[in-house]
Amino acid sequence: MIRTQRASRISASLGGTLAGFAAYGIWGMFPLYWRQLTMVEPLQILAHRVFWAGAFCLVLVLAKGRGAEILRLAKSGKTFAALAFSTLVVTFNWGLYIWAVNSGRIIESALGYYINPLLSVALGAVFFKEKADSWTRIAVAVASLGILGAAVVYGSVPWVSLLLASTFALYGALKKNLGLEPLLGLTVETLIAAPVAFAFLAFRQAQGAAGFIGQGFAPSLLLVLAGVVTAVPLLFFAHAANTITLQRMGFIQYVSPTGQLLLGVLVFGERPSPALVVAFAGVLVAVLIYVATRKKTSQG
Question: Hey, CA dihedral for 146, 150, 151, 156, is it positive or negative?
Answer without folding.
Answer: negative
